[in-house]
Each structure stands twice: as C-alpha cells, then as structure tokens.
Amino acid sequence: MSLTLPLPARKDRPPHCVIIVENLPVPFDRRVWQEANALKEAGWEVSVICPRNAQHPQSYEKIDGIAIHRHSLPVEARGKLGFLLEYGCALFHETRLLLKIALTRGFDVVQGCNPPDLIFLVAAPYKLFGKKYVFDHHDLCPELYAAKYGRHGFFHRLLLLAEKCTFKFADRVISANETYRDIAIERGGKAPERVTTVYSVPDRQKLRRVAPDAQLRAGAGVILGYVGIIADQDGVDHLVRMMHHIVCEGGRHGVRAVVVGDGPALASVRELATSLDVAEHVVFTGYLRGEALLAALSTFDIGIIPDPVNEYNDKISMNKVFEYSALGIPSVSYDLSETRRLLGAAGSFAKDATPRGLAEAALPLIDDKERRRHLGSEAGKLAEAKFNWTSEAEKYVAAYADLVPERAYA
Questions:
Q1: pLDDT tens digits, residue range 140-157?
Q2: Do residues 194 and 244 both lie within one domain?
Q3: 211, 227, 241, 330: least surrounded by Cβ within 10 Å?
C-alpha cells in the first residue's frame, strides 16, 4: 500500500520545483535566479525558499511568476558556533516553509543549493512519496572549512560525511564546474550520466555596459574593481593590502579601488584600509542593484579577483571571471587552477601568492592602457565564445527532463 499526503492532485498542472538556498536571498543570488527562470520558461512552476535581508525584507513575494518564500536568520555566521546556529535556524525555516508549500500547492522536485550540505534532510521525508531531489553543487564545503581554519580534523570529516550523504540522496547533481563534476563522480559515487555541469555565467542580455558612475571615477586615472561577497575567505583584505603596495610603495596615487558588495568581513577590511593609510583610495559601495550596479561595473578598468590560494579557491569557478569578461574588463588574480583554465591568455596572474604579487600583476595593466584594452578585448571574445547562459540553461533544464513523468497540462 502506497503512502499518501494531503497534496493537491497535479496531473492537470505543470510540474513544480521548489529551490532551497540558504546563504543568499533571491533574486540577489544570480545563479539561483537564472535557474529558476530557466525552469519557468521550460514550463515548470517554480518556488524558492531563501533567507531575507535588508535589501529583500519581504517574507513572501512573487516576481515574474516565481513564488519566493523568505525566512529570517539570527546571525551572519563567522565562527563555528555561529555557523551551527545559522544552519540550524535555516533548516527549521526551510522545513516549515517546504511543508507549507506541500500542503497548499504540492510539488514534484526539491532542489537544494549548498552550502550547507544538509538541505537533503529537509527534502528526505518527501522521498517516501515519490518526490525527487536535485543537488545544485555551489560550494565545496570540506575544502572551504580547510581553507578557513587551516586544518582538517573532526569537523572536516563531518563535512565529508554530509557531502557523501547529499550525493547519495540526490537523484541528479548539477555541478558548478568540471572539477565539481569529477568530485561528484569520484568522491560522491554518482553515475556520470546523473551529473551535469552548469557554469554560473551571467545572462549577457542583462549584464551590459552602461554610462560609468562619474562619482566613483572622481578624477581617478585607473579604477580597480571588485564585485562580490565580503567574507573572510573572499580575499578583500588582500585587495586592500595590494592597494597599499600600489599606492604607498608604488606611488600610483591616481589609482582607486571600488569594492561593490557587503558581507560579514566588511567592517574588518574597512579598518584595515584605514590602518594601512589607503582609506581614501578604497571606496566601499555596499550592495548595488540594477542600473547602479551596471554603472559601477562599467567604471572598472581592471577587475580584481583577490581570492587567496588554497585548496578551496583552486577548484572553484569565480563568478567574477564571468562577470568581468562579459563586460570586456581584464582580470588580475592569483594563479588558481580553475581561474587559469577559464581565462587562459586573457588573464593576468600573480607569480607570488601574496598581496604584493597581486600588485605586481596589476601594475603592468595600470601603467599601460593599450595592454588593458587588449586583455579586455580578449576577455570579451572569450565570454562571447564560451560563457553563454543560453547553452548552460539548456543543459540545466535537460537535467530535469526525466525527473517527472510526462503529462498533459494547460
């Protein structure tokens, strides 16, 4: 005898996917928002469960036909206890909201977007009723732990166990790059045909050049730009130290760094800029959206990818690579395997894995406008040829093709 839940019959309606993401609100999380829209355009109903923040405070709203359910979080985690509290609170709210959706609208598939590798616990009871689980592999949590705390040990083993359980539980895995795909197959034991690589490339129709922000330029000869989260592992402190080498030691006083974003390490990197006497050369804009974001990005002359060298960053595909390249902005970064694989000759890589090395990689571009123009042009060509969301979206939707039996619906 089969188990049943009081869910609405769905044979006469489109299939419904609920996407759960813990670390960023939607639509701010670009990857998740693009995936949600790709499914919607393919005929799916889509709901999202995510946290709320000051920029997206509504508990519920519907945008472009996608239902977004947001929940509160007590802290923005930094230490181990903070992460445990954040994840515990998030799992509670995700469980509560998924049950609400199940009892009111029903669903067919849950997609969990890590971190953490615990969201499968929220979806687990629904597997008993034939629901499917898709794991969207955003981050390498064991490697991230090792990079943040400089060791492995007990918590690292727990993270490996959670990752293994997530892979085993998933009906499909969406990998953020080919390295992640190899991990899903080799470390996670997934069959290759159940793992699809989908890169987090931006939609070129939405990410475009506009008139630059004159206030951010404010007479500076060269703007070094950063866009993204400002957390301990993101290396914005390396960018600030790099500016010290460029301005205070290198004498390039016409150079300004513009940092677009926010996060738990913002206060500490601001303090660092002051202590290194470069505060007047580093502008922190906070989160930007829409035209303000595009104007800031269009002001960048050089895109900085300051994520430091470690076992985590060496394997991840930086969103900044795709974003800078889409706008024809040359990139300067540390010599990370995945970043070099993506950019190749279109990137400028530090020979030394220190802020001084990053500064030395940036100086030739700062001093030579023609070199900046050339590398920016090469990055733009690379984006045109390889970083195409349309093709990535097709792969993503195809991964869902046989998860739900075909049925006729209006």
A1: 999 998 988 888 999 999
A2: no
A3: 211
* Same-domain status, 268 and 183: no
- Look at residue 409 and tell me if it is in a domain: no
Residues forming beta bridges with residue 63, ordered by sequence position: 66
Q: What is the pLDDT of residue 54?
A: 85
pTM over 0.85: yes
324: CATH: 3.40.50.2000
| Residue 318 domain boundaries | 214-386
Start-to-end C-alpha separation, the chain: 31
- Give dist(CA 145, CA 314) in Å, integer: 14
Per the domain annotation, does 10 fall within a domain? no
> Does pLDDT of 8 surpass 80?
no
Is 233 within 8 Å of 78 (Cβ atoms)?
no
Task: Look at residue 408 in the predicted model and tell me its pLDDT.
Answer: 44
Quick: pLDDT tens for 198-251: 999 999 888 999 999 999 999 999 999 999 999 888 999 999 999 999 999 999
Counted domains in the chain? 2
Residues whose CB is less than 8 angstroms from the CB of residue 276 and which lie 6 or more positions away in sequence, other chains included: 240, 241, 243, 244, 248
180 shares its domain with 236: no
Q: How far apart are CA 60 and CA 289, in angstroms?
A: 20
Q: Which has the closest alpha carbon to 329: 388, 282, 374, 384?
A: 374
Are 49 and 135 in the same domain?
Answer: yes
Please, what is the average pLDDT of the chain?
A: 93
What local confidence, expressed as pLDDT, does residue 86 receive? Answer: 82
Cis peptide bond upstream of 25, omega within 30: no
Exposure string over 9-42, b if 16+ CB within 10 A, otherwise e: ebeeebbbbbbbbbbbbbbebbbbbbbbbbbbeb
